[in-house]
Amino acid sequence: MSMFQIFNISGSAVSANSQRLNVVASNLANVDTVAGPDGQAYKARQVVFQTHLMGARDGSSVDPGAAGVKVTDIREDEAPGRRIFDPKHPKADGQGYVTYSNVNSVEEMVNMIAASRAYQNNVEVMNTAKVLLQKTLQLGQ
Fold it and tell me: Is the backbone of residue 59 left (phi > 0), alpha (psi -120 to 50) or beta?
């Protein structure tokens, strides 16, 4: 594997984790949202990652160690929303319950920390590779 492929691999992971952070931010922004006019509350979304080979577009042989990460899907959590009894709420149903989103703020905060750490780690990998390449160039001087 070429040293330059490290940038492609870590770059794909940075991009995927950036998308994961955006989804987490959207989930956290909708923690306490109430069901809309269609009766459906916001549903938490989760990012699905998959490993993929880098550079195999034209069917040519690819270095088997050159893999990256891509986002294959963003799935909605099908768990039911929280129902809270509040008959005075303007969005209460006929039984007096208000349906809130199914976002769990604690789980989303953990997900956010994990995504930001993964993002930071991949940036650090790219910085280390850059320093190693600079040291290699200095050896040739």
Answer: left
Q: Which is nearest to 46 in space by CA: 65, 32, 66, 26?
A: 26
**131: confidence class by pLDDT, cuts 50, 70, 90:** very high
Residue-wise pLDDT tens digits, 2-49: 777 888 889 999 999 999 999 999 999 999 888 766 768 889 999 999
d(CA 15, CA 13) in angstroms, rounded, equals 5
CB 129 within 8 A of CB 6: yes
Most confident of 79-93, 100-114, 127-141: 100-114
Helix axes 105-139, 3-29, angle to 10 degrees: 160
Closest listed residue to residue 76, CA positions, set 48, 100, 50, 49: 48
Taking CA atoms, 88 is separated from 7, 77, 92, 93, 114, in Å, by 56, 28, 7, 10, 39
pTM over 0.85: no
The 10 Å Cβ neighbour count of residue 21 is 17
Residue 111 per-residue DSSP state: H
